[in-house]
Design a protein that fits this description.
single chain, 100 residues, alpha+beta, Ribosomal Protein L22, Chain A, two-stranded antiparallel ribbon, 3 helices, 2 strands
Length: 100
């Protein structure tokens, strides 16, 4: 979750085009799902509200805790250690840019 938040903190408040460029050149694995969510949010704003994608800014971007998958890793002498694979819910909201 903190790995996703460090990317969301960088794009929050930026325009859609700037955020896409930043996400493309960041070296983190979490940029793939974030880009997918951002494109979906912009497509929804364009289709449902009739907004122009070039005038959109990221108004809010959050990452909340998701379910943890429990897995086991074999260890020495027949033991097994539990590993938690944590997931998160990514939420991005876009709004029309206000000239101020």
């Amino acid at each position: 979750m903190s790995k996703v938040r460090r990317v969301l903190d960088q794009i929050r408040g930026r325009s859609y085009r700037d955020a896409l460029i930043m996400l493309e050149f960041m070296p983190y694995r979490s940029t793939g799902p974030i880009t997918k969510v951002l494109r979906s949010a912009v497509a929804n704003a364009e289709h449902n509200l009739g907004l122009d994608p070039s005038s959109l800014v990221i108004s809010s971007a959050t990452a909340d805790m998701g379910p943890s998958m429990k897995r086991y890793r074999p260890r020495a002498q027949g033991r097994a250690y539990q590993i938690k694979k944590q997931t998160c819910h990514i939420s991005i909201a876009v709004a029309a840019q206000t000239d101020s």
